[in-house]
Fold:
Amino acid sequence: MEAQFVNGRVIGFLDNRVFYQNITAKHIFRQYQGKGMDVSLYRALKGKNCKTWQLRFEDTKQVLAIPFDEIEKVGFEINTGSGKQMMVRLKDFNEEAEAKQRHLL
Structure:
């Protein structure tokens, strides 16, 4: 597991070509109903042959994932005031099966 940094802050972790972030609902851009990733981090992860971007919601235990290859197709670059972000709408992520089973318990 390798910590990933943006501006000196840990943003998430790369583990077996899966980039995951432990987040809460407050990390979602309400205007876009999506999650942004710093463009420079996106490019770095792409260069490391990352396969999946995974969002792990600490408050709901929901886990959403999108294949890295899909991000360019559905995502869009936008400057949110903190630099350029690759924004992906939550509807373009898929809920992981294991997380769905945990929701039922």
The two ends are 28 Å apart (CA to CA). Helices lie at 39-47, 68-74, 97-104. The chain has a mean pLDDT of 92. The longest helix spans residues 39-47.
